[in-house]
């Protein structure tokens, strides 16, 4: 049966790869990567550099697949989920065809997942759908997440003592508001700016990479700086991956 390794490669620093990830890289014949065009070509190039650094042989190759166009976000939550499901279905069909044509019956392929495959990444859901079409098995090698990279860069713990942490998206933060400590990913338009001005924020982009940029403070003090920094970085690189941690002002102590 064909095998696919789903390898978490961290947030850009090749030094973040685990020994298990390096071992999986060296076990792989074909690496599958989604091609999203010129603006994100650097992400594919970074994956190639990781392979060149850690793979001891030369008998591997990359297969790039054109990423299906995803419809814009709809207003209703059910519509959004349907849009994502259709996009995943189109990807699964593409992947199934590529795995069948590029891997032999007992071949080993891999998908290099930015960060960790468990955190806001579609790879595992898509491979479940691929397995309904093609005889394939897969395993998962975890990687350093954006959350770990963010808290390490700012030298802060993720949670406060005895307090939970919510992980969500910018879209849901804007819709539902801030109720406690929250990590936000996939925020395209700066939903943090709607939070109360005294909210504490730790923000970072290109975490773990040479272009890493960090800002921390209160929303009232640094929101405009983050928005300007984010826009300039996106313009310069053609893409951006960022995340942030929010903490509301603590409740006053009980007298």
UniProtKB/TrEMBL annotation:
Keywords from the named record: Cobalamin biosynthesis, Methyltransferase, S-adenosyl-L-methionine, Transferase
Keyword field contains S-adenosyl-L-methionine: yes
Enzyme class, UniProt record, top EC level: transferase
UniProt cross-references to Pfam families, sorted A to Z: TP_methylase
Protein name: Precorrin-6A synthase (Deacetylating)
Gene: cobF
SUPFAM superfamilies in the record: Tetrapyrrole methylase
EC number annotated for this UniProt entry: 2.1.1.152
């Amino acid at each position: 049966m064909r095998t696919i390794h789903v390898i978490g490669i961290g947030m850009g620093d090749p030094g973040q790869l685990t020994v298990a990830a390096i071992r999986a890289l060296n076990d792989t014949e074909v690496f599958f990567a989604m091609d999203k065009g010129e603006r994100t070509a650097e992400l594919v190039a970074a994956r190639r550099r990781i392979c060149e650094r850690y793979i001891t042989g030369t008998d591997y190759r990359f297969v790039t697949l054109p990423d299906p166009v995803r419809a814009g976000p709809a207003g209703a939550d059910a519509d959004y989920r349907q849009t994502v499901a259709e996009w995943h279905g189109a990807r699964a069909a593409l992947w199934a065809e590529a795995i069948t044509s590029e891997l032999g019956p007992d071949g080993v392929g891999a998908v290099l997942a930015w960060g960790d495959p468990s955190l806001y990444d579609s790879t595992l859901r898509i491979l479940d759908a691929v397995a309904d079409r093609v005889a394939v098995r897969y395993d998962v090698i975890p990687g350093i997440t954006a959350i770990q990279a963010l808290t390490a860069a700012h030298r802060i713990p993720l949670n406060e003592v005895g307090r939970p942490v919510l992980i969500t998206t910018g879209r849901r933060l804007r819709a539902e508001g801030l109720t406690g400590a929250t990590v936000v990913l996939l925020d395209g338009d700066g939903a943090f700016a709607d939070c109360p001005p005294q909210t504490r924020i730790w923000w970072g982009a290109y975490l773990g990479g040479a272009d890493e940029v960090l800002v921390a403070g209160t929303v009232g003090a640094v929101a405009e700086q983050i928005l300007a920094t984010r826009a300039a970085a996106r313009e310069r690189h053609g893409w951006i991956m960022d995340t942030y941690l929010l903490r509301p002002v603590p409740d006053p102590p009980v007298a």
